[in-house]
């Protein structure tokens, strides 16, 4: 059972990251920390099982359409009509996958109590707000500005007093 759930997590992992509020929590330590009842665990497993093959098929369709698009974009002579059709196919495949994940998410949400749902939302992974490639990591431009009053960092460096860069036009 755990192996099958692992396959689902791998198959749906890419799209789960793209659907707001959804990540594979049901097979993680977070699920154990939610104090789920036996009935809730059973319903969650049944829901995941119900969507498993559909998600695998939809993920495969998305990957195939992305591959076709990549091939068309890498041709020496790009055919605009074929490439536009391939873009539409990728968009449709992503939409179908996101729809299925959202439907599964709704079914899973209904199984949880309001308190369990709040705890799940509190513990879900958050996107990194600073320091990544192409991001400006300046004080005040992240999820939280943790400097104490007085504007000095914990290691006693003065804060960056340069004005922010103007937006690219």
Describe this structure in words.
This protein has 169 residues and is an all-alpha fold. It has a single domain (2-123), classed as Four Helix Bundle (Hemerythrin (Met), subunit A) (Up-down Bundle). The protein contains five helices and no strands. Helix 1 packs across helix 3, helix 1 (2-18) packs across helix 4 and helix 3 packs antiparallel against helix 4. It is elongated and about 60 Å long. The model is unreliable at 1-18 and 130-164 (pLDDT under 50).
SSE topology sketch:
Elements: H1 2-18, H2 29-33, H3 38-74, H4 80-111, H5 114-123
From the structure above, extract its key features.
169 residues, mainly alpha, Four Helix Bundle (Hemerythrin (Met), subunit A), 5 helices, 60% helix, elongated
């Amino acid at each position: 059972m755990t192996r099958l759930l692992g396959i689902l997590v791998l198959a749906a992992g890419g799209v789960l990251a793209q659907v707001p509020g959804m990540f594979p929590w049901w097979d993680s330590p977070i699920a154990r920390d939610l104090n789920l009842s036996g009935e809730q665990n059973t319903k969650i497993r049944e829901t995941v099982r119900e969507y498993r093959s559909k998600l695998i098929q939809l993920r495969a369709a998305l990957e195939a359409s992305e591959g076709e698009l990549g091939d068309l974009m890498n041709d020496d002579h790009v055919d605009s009509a074929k490439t536009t059709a391939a873009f539409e196919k990728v968009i449709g495949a992503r939409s179908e996958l996101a729809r299925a994940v959202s439907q599964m998410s709704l079914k899973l949400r209904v199984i949880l109590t309001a308190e369990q749902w709040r705890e799940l939302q509190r513990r879900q992974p958050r996107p990194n707000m600073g320091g990544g490639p192409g991001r400006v990591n300046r004080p005040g431009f992240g999820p939280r500005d943790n400097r104490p009053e007085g504007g000095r960092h914990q290691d006693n460096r003065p804060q960056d007093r340069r004005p922010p860069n103007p937006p690219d036009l």
